[in-house]
Write a structure and sequence with these properties.
This protein is mostly beta strands and 332 residues long. The chain contains three helices and 26 strands. Strand 24 and strand 25 form a beta hairpin.
Length: 332
């Protein structure tokens, strides 16, 4: 599953749903790619601050790693460094070093909108903010979640990139953990890199402890889904409200996604990989996503069935020879 996970990491370049407000600790948003409607597609802006928006860092060098190639830009009077004209599919992350402190963004894949980052250096002179008490509330599963399905090494691998969103300004206590029960057929479930330390997996049960900080909590899970014939079935029950999100299948042969719930299904190519993709509808807590993965490679069962039939016939003939009428007459 490791090779598949590397490929999925490229497919799931996500734009975070986190919004930044004066009430939020900036460290929650540091390094997270944010959609920027005010920027043209292919533009990326990085703002470097120390501790808060009141302390823009001017004259700092931001290193943009564009498909692995460095491009250096110095921050302006507003603490911003920007590059433009990046092609869709370009992979990028940004790095700055402030007083020997390395600040680094998440990697993002350029899509159809501009992107902005905030890099936040530690303000050593500021007093530590007192912890904010958790309040009763709820969370949702956000629109930048993903399900990615990949057939490789004769296994059907399923990857959940679930972004649990707390849309309020304070930590939220659900009164217990958030439990996501994977499909009954799921095997070898494990947390992937980037998953919150609040999450644990036992069998098909993914448990995420409260409280949930403002913004997103990542719950990234991988498992294999056994199947018979050329079709696998996936049914995912949701423990909380779900906003519409994307489902991808990395297409192999005749592989396809079939579900009455999928909207806008299409086939396309991203980073050289053919994909089948669609979006789920919004779902309320307690609803179930039902989909089938069809056209999967499989071995024909008729040779095994013929062999089993012949073996049964041979055993029956031997039994008849040992205990049938002829054997009884010989004994007499």
């Amino acid at each position: 599953m490791v090779a598949g996970a590397v490929m999925v990491a490229g497919v799931c370049g996500l734009l975070s749903p986190v919004t930044v407000s004066a009430q939020m600790d900036l460290r929650q948003a540091a390094g997270v790619p944010l959609p920027a409607a005010e920027l043209p597609a292919g533009s990326v802006s990085v703002r470097v601050v120390r501790g808060s928006f009141a302390n823009n860092l001017v004259g700092e060098t931001v290193v943009f790693l564009v498909d692995g190639q460095e491009r250096r830009v110095v921050t302006d009077a507003a603490g911003r460094a920007q590059i433009d004209g990046l092609a869709p599919g370009t992979r990028l992350r940004a790095v700055a070093t402030v007083d020997d402190e390395r600040l680094e963004s998440q990697e993002v894949t350029i899509g159809s909108s501009g992107i902005r980052f905030i890099l936040v250096a530690t303000d050593a002179g500021a007093e530590a903010a007192p912890p904010v008490a958790a309040v009763p509330g709820s969370v949702i599963i956000g629109p930048d979640s993903r399900i990615v399905i990949d057939y490789s090494n004769e296994l059907l691998n399923v990857y959940y990139v679930v972004q649990v969103l707390n849309q309020g300004p304070a930590p939220v206590d659900l009164g217990g953990p958030l439990v996501i029960t994977l499909p009954t057929e799921a095997r070898s479930a494990t947390l992937m890199e980037g998953a919150t330390p609040q999450a644990t997996v036992s069998g098909t049960r993914v448990t995420v402890r409260s409280p949930f900080a403002p913004g997103r909590t990542d719950v990234n899970v991988a498992f294999t889904l056994p199947y018979n014939g050329d079709t696998a079935h996936l049914e995912q029950h949701w423990p909380t409200d779900v906003q519409p999100f994307a489902v991808f299948a990395l297409k192999t042969g005749e592989m396809d996604l079939v579900s009455a719930q999928l909207q806008g299904k299409q086939t396309g190519v991203q980073q050289g990989q053919t994909l089948v993709m669609g979006r789920t509808p919004a779902m309320a807590s307690g609803e179930t996503l039902v989909l089938a993965v069809t056209g999967l490679p499989h071995r024909s069962t008729w040779p095994r069935n013929v062999a089993l039939g012949l073996a049964g016939a041979i055993c029956l003939a031997g039994f008849w020879g040992a205990f049938g009428p002829g054997a009884r007459r010989q004994a007499a």
